[in-house]
Amino acid sequence: MRLRPILLRTILLLTLAVAGAHFKGAAAFAQEPQAPAAAQAPLADTPLDQATKEIDKAKVQLTALQDGAKQNADNDDVLVGLATKADELSRAVITISVNLRPRFDQIKNRLAEIGDPPKDGQPPEAEIVTQERNALAAERAQINALTGDAENLSITVTKLVNEITEMRRRLFADTLLRRTEISVSVLDDAASAFVHEASEFSQALSSWATFVWKFKRFPMFAAIFLSLASALILLSGSYRLFGSYLRRDEAVENPSYIGRLSIAFWSTLIRTLALSVLLVTSFFFLNGFNVLRPDIAPVIGALFGAIGLVYFVGRFVNAIFAPNEPHWRLVRLSNRGALSIGYCLLAMAVVNALDYLFGTIGESMGSPLVLTVVRSLIAALIIGLILISVSFGKPMLARNGDPDAPGRHWPRGMAIILRVVGAGLILTALTGYVGLARFVATQLIITGAVIVTMYVGLLSGKAISRQESFGDTFFARFLTRRFKLGPVAIDQAGLVVGLAIYAVALLVGIPLILLLWGFHVQDLQILAYRLFTEVRLGGISISLLGICTGILLFAGVYLLTRWLQRWLDGNVMARSHVDLGVRNSVKTGIGYLGVGIAAIIGVSAAGIDLSSFALVASALSVGIGFGLQNIVSNFVSGLILLVERPFKVGDHVVSGTAEGIVKRISVRATEIETFRKQSIIVPNSELINGLVGNWTHRNKIGRSEIPVSVAYNADPQQVMDILLELTAKIPLVMRNPEPHVEFLRFGPYSLDFELRFFLADMGDGMAVRNNLRIEILKRFKAEGIEIPLPQTDLTIHREARPALADAGRDQPNEQENSADTPMEEEEQPVRQLRSKTADGNRKG
Known about the structure:
The protein is an alpha+beta fold. Helix content is about 65%, strand content about 10%. The strands form four sheets. The chain has a five-stranded antiparallel β-sheet. A three-stranded antiparallel β-sheet has the order 8-10-9, with helices on one face. A two-stranded antiparallel sheet has the order 1-2. A hairpin with a 2-residue loop joins strand 3 and strand 4. Helix 3 packs parallel to helix 5. The chain is flat and about 145 Å long. Belongs to the MscS (TC 1.A.23) family. It is found in: Cell membrane.
C-alpha cells in the first residue's frame, strides 16, 4: 500500500521532466530561425535615449544662435528672429525636463517599495531584488544628469535671450541718439543723391509696370479683386452689425453723449480696419502671385502703409473734431478752430507718411544715408513749424457757446506745451539728432491719435456700462425686439457690452502703440505667449490660457449637467410619473455630482496640481474638527435627507416651532414655507437629530375635525344626522373611511359633538371645513337648534351687621334705644344673578 503513492509520485516527476525537456527543445528550435532577424532589427530608443538626443540637438542649436547673435549685433530684424528661436528652444528644453519627471517619480516610488538594502547582520535579500534596485538607481542617476543638463541649457538660453534683448535696446538707443553733422555740403550731397534716386526709381518703376502689364496682368487683377472682396466682406458685415454707429444721422439735432462717443470710436476703428484689410490683403496677394519684384515690394508696402496712416488720421480728425457738424463734436472748439486743427494734424500725418515712403524708396534704391537724414530733417522742421503756428491760433469755443463765432486762444499751459514741443523738434533736428526728432514727430501724430481713439473707446464703454444708459441705444432696442429682454436684462447686457468695448479698445490700441515704439510682431507673439501660458508670481507659474480653458470646460460641463437635469426631470421621470420628492432628490444629486466633476475637470485643465493642496486639506481637516463641525454635520445630514427622504419637497411638516410646506432641500439647510408665506431656513442636522412630523409622508390623506356645541334642549340624534347629511354632500370628503360624529361630553352649558371625516388631500381641508361650518350654521338656524353661548352663575351672599351691645357702655333711653336698635336678623334671600357672556374663542 505504501509503494503505490511512491510509484505514482515517481511517474509524475518523470513525466514533468520529459515535458520540460520537450518544451525546452521546442523553444530552442523556435528561436533558432528568429535569431538573425532579431539581430538585424534595431532596438527602439528608450525615453532616456530620446531625451539625450534632444538635449544634444538643443546644444547645437544654442551654439548656432549664439554665433548668429554675435554676427548680427547691428541688425534688429535678424535679432528679433534669433530671439524668437531662442524662446522656442527654451520651451523645448523645459519640455524635455518635464517629460522625464513621470519616469523619475515612478522610479522613486518603486525604490521606496523595495526599501533599503539589508544591513550587516540582517538576512540577505533575493538577487533579483538587488539587481532591480541597482538598475533603478542607475536609471535615476541618468535622469538626474539629463535633468541637470536641461536646466543648465535652459539657463544658458535664458541668458542668450536677455543678451539679445540688451543688444536690441542698445541698437535702438544708438539709432535714436546718432548724431549727424548738418552743413551746406551735406545738403548739396543730398540734392544730388535725390536726383540720382529719382532717376533710378523712375526707371525701375517703369520697367516693373511694363513687365506686369505684359506678363502679370491677370494675377494683378486677381489679387486686387480678392483683396477688394475681403475688404467689402468686412465692411458689409460691419455695416450690418454697427451700421448705426458708422454714420451720423443728420436729422438728430442734439445727439446724446453715448451716441457721439460710439460713432466716433466705431466709425474710426471699423473703417480703418476695413482699409487695412484691403491694403494688407492686396500686398499679400500681389506678393503671393509674384507680381511684385524684390526691389518694388518694399516700396508698395510703404505706399500702402502711408495710405493707411493718412486715412486713419483723417478718420480720427473727422470723428473727434467734426469740422462741419458742430453738434457731433466731442471737444469744445469753434468751427474754424476745429477745421484748422484738423488740417494741421492731417498735414503732419502726410509729412510723416511721405518721409516714411521716401525713406523706403531710398533703401530699395540703395541711396546714401545722407539723403535719408535730410528727408527726416525737413519732416521734423515742417512738423515743428506746424506745432508752433497752431499754438498762436484761437480754436477754443466762444463763451456764448456759438460755434460760428470767433474762438478764443488756447489755455496758457496748452499753448506753451505746443511751442516747447515744436521748438524742441526744430532744435533737435538742427543739432544733428535727426533720428530722435523724426521718432518724436512720428509718435506725436500716430501714437497720439491711437491713444485718443483708445480713450474715446474707453469713454464709450464707460458710458454704455452706466446704469440704465444702454437701453437707449440701437443695439439694445434690437436685443429687446429679438430676444424679448426686460429692462433688467438689458441693463446687464449693457455692462457686458461695455466690457467688450473696453477689451476691443485695449486689444487693438496697445499692440499698435507697441509696434510704433519699436516692437516687432515676433515680440508681440512672444509677449502674448508668455502672458497666456507662463505668468510667474514668485515660484508659482500661472497659465492664463489654461485658466480660461478650465473656466470654459467648467462652464460646459455645468451647462451639460443642467441640461441633463432638465431632460431627466421633464422626459424620463415626468413620463414615468415619479414622485415629486424623488424627482427633486435625483435632480439635486445629479446637480452636485455634475458640479463636482466640472470642478475637477476645470482645475485639471487649468494646470493646477491638486497634490499641492495636500497641506491646505490637512489644515482644513483640523478646522473641520474644531470650527466646521456644524457645517460638515449639516452637509452630511443633507445627503442623508436626499437619499433617505424622510420628507420631500411639497410635504407638510412640523419641526419644533416651524410648520409649513417644504420648498427646497439643499445639502446645508432645508427651506420651509409657513402658511403665512414666511420662509424658515432649518439646518439639516436639526431635522435629522430632532423630531419631525410629516403630515404627507406616505400620502396626502388626512383627517379633519369640526367641533360643534348645541344647547341642552336639542335632540342629539337629530344633530348627528344633520352633520352626517351635510358632510355627505361634500364631494371632496372620502367615503372610506366614512365620516362619523362623536358625542364627546356633557359640557357645562352645552352638548359637545365632533364631526370627523377624511380628505384625499389635506391641502383642501381649510376650504372644506370653512364651507361646512357655514352650511351647519344655516341648517341649525333652519331647524331651530340653538348654539349656546358660555354662561356663568354668580351668587351674592349678604351678611347681618353685628349687635351693638356692650356692658360697660352707657345705655340710651328706651325711646332712643328702640329707635336705633336694628331689626332682628332675618335671613336675607339669596340673589342669583345669571349673566351670559359671549365667548369669541369657543371652538367652532
